Q: What sequence folds into this?
């Protein structure tokens, strides 16, 4: 097994070359900057010979870190909206007096929070969305799209503002259909007198 001085001997030989300002023996006679010239064509080499760029610098160029390349990280979030569970009638035991009611549609704006959608169902020509705050919204899809394609729920890519907007975001069904929402309306129950 080699002894410790034999292991560090090669490093000790390179140490005077690596120190800044250190000159090898006989370096006083070297001209500070010289250029290589070929006698035949008299062209100059772009490689200067000086103390700033010694001939052994390629040794340390191999150890230098490689040039970094630009890395782009993208994050994509897909929201899955599942079908609404079947609602049970909790007031089945007590039979209330029959009250005449009707469902009225009111405008609901152009955007809704996508995180507030709790479930979805198709009812006729509209896609009914049950919100987490107990509201019920009806979404009319663009021309040529059927709400029946979305009866098992849908997927949507989360936008930067986290909203589902009219004529901006696409809904993707599990069967492959892609549609935009044409309008939102809120379904409100009113008593008829």
A:
């Amino acid at each position: 097994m080699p002894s410790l001085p034999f292991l560090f001997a090669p490093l000790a030989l390179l140490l005077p070359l690596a120190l800044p300002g250190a000159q090898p023996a006989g370096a006083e006679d070297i001209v500070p900057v010289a250029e290589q010239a070929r006698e035949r064509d008299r062209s100059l080499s772009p490689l200067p010979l000086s103390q700033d760029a010694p001939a052994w610098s390629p040794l340390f160029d191999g150890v230098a870190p490689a040039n970094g390349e630009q890395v782009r990280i993208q994050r994509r979030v897909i929201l899955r909206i599942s079908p609404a569970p079947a609602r049970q009638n909790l007031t089945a035991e007590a039979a209330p007096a029959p009250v005449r009611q009707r469902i009225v549609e009111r405008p609901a704006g152009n955007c809704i929070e996508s995180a507030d959608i709790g479930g979805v169902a198709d009812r006729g020509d509209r896609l009914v969305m049950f919100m987490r705050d107990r509201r019920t919204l009806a979404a009319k899809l663009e021309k040529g799209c059927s709400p029946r394609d979305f009866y098992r729920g849908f997927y949507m890519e989360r936008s930067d503002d986290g909203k589902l907007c009219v004529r901006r975001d696409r809904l993707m069904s599990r069967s492959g259909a892609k549609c935009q929402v044409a309008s939102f309306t809120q379904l409100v129950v009113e008593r008829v007198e």
In short: The first strand starts at residue 33 and ends at 37. Residues 78-83+100-191 form one domain. The chain has two helices and twelve strands.
